[in-house]
Amino acid sequence: EIEDWIIQKIKNTSLPPLQVPALFGNMYSAAIWAEFLYLVENFAQVNDTIYFGSYGSGSTCISGLLKIQPNFKSVLNNSLNMGEYLNNKIQISVPEYEKLHKNKISSKLQWGKIVTTDKHCAFTLNYCDEGCNLSQYSGLNYCPKGHSGNNSVEFPLTGTLTEIKPYNNDITPLLEGYVLITDSPKIGSTMEFELRRWKSPKKNPPNSPKGLLNWMPIYRSVSASPYFGLVDDTFASKVDETASISETNL
User: Domain spans of the chain?
Assistant: First the structure.
């Protein structure tokens, strides 16, 4: 039980914040981590609390509140090197990247059902019948592209995957309690919430406004984190055996 508790603590506090720079790798993430490390290396003392945050410019942002631990100097002296980081990246060609960028290559999305024990730890978003984000403010809660419908959908931060069905361009499953999942998880996997850019597969109505940003939660297995390749195999194999993140008191 002590071992499981330690694994949960490490998994739930250390790995999730690393997924933003791992998945997006943008300069906002790089800059904020660089500034944070500069403070830690040059000024931080044990028990200091440091808040940091970055501006995401429509893509993503990263923020956090960290407390400096007694052994932080030893961590700094044994940090990851560039080789360890690059070995966990996948090289693709420029044409392949352009196809991914233009959504010409499938992202292997699926629909799934997520069950959580913590009903209070969730986001609520409103969508029209075609998947466009709607404002929750009265008078502004209409689709700017002219689509009909106003559907309130709740997304838990974490949960257990109980059902999988194929993805198609129909948004109906979202309104029936399904969520988008990626990385081909298995039934029973512990899933976590990520917010991604979303584009409705249907054409926009004539004269609809340009440049609108839509967001859709996508869930991935906690064990799919690219940083699990840097930890012990025994550690990684236990991830899906542990309780959901939402049940852990941090």
Answer: 2-79, 107-224
